[in-house]
């Protein structure tokens, strides 16, 4: 007996709806192999950086040694992480590739250091320089360092770039905005910290500061929670509040160089690297915002669950909880605003 069309169509669309819902909201976990929680966490944040995956997808490697090539293995694992499958994504090849490039298995690593190493491997190992530079530009923070001699007032400037912004935190309550202001404030260097002045031809007391020249599409921030005190490294679990949205134009004019002309200074948080434990032993997890649903998810190795902004905020700082160690912000789509008033 044939099934009436009026019954078949609703059931068909119900199954299709379940399928599309699963594809939109699920993400794949990663099994912890050889203390790989640090790399697992970074892979989840890189997978949430779809701009990176889009550039890697355009790359057609030719003649690279696949098993030793970090960007090649990264391209493969990101593609597998985007597949709609219920079990964890296989990433042992990527882990062994990192091991061959001296990011060793069965070793505790610092997430920010591994992140910067991966970006460095991409620059050195991709055979398409145009795409490699495009990836570099995705994260590149251009800055100008100014050193002023306090004896003769001679000013020396040097342009450079960063791929993550290292923010010093106080052993008290902090806010991301306060940490930013502190980073761009000028500091006086005296005593053993004096700098060499070419005009005075000797080391003199100086005033040093950093100014922003340009902001990237993806802004990575490191909250410097690990402090070396009398030869011992300890972790600071103090509070650092951070917003879901951040506007750089709210910073003081002194934070920007005279060449800064960008008007798209608004950013939205999309990933947080969380550290549990102390300076000697710990565990990494991640909160990431899913691209299609715009919902927060929590990734703890192979375990992935839906989360919320309220859960993300709980990582701002507490001795008994995981604490935010790296923040990743994405620049908002360009708006038709005028340039921010940086003249005040």
TrEMBL record:
Task: Please state every residue range assigned to the domain named USP.
Answer: 28-332
**Pfam families found in the cross-reference section:** UCH
Database matches in Gene3D superfamilies: Cysteine proteinases (3.90.70.10)
Q: What InterPro entries does UniProt report for this protein, alphabetically?
A: Papain-like_cys_pep_sf, Peptidase_C19, Peptidase_C19_UCH, USP, USP_CS
- Identify the domain of life: Eukaryota
Entry-linked CDD domains: Peptidase_C19
Task: List the GO molecular function terms.
Answer: cysteine-type deubiquitinase activity
Q: Cite the PANTHER family for this sequence.
A: UBIQUITIN CARBOXYL-TERMINAL HYDROLASE, UBL CARBOXYL-TERMINAL HYDROLASE 18-RELATED
Record protein name field: Ubiquitin specific peptidase 18
Question: Could you tell me which species this protein originates from?
Answer: Poecilia latipinna (sailfin molly)
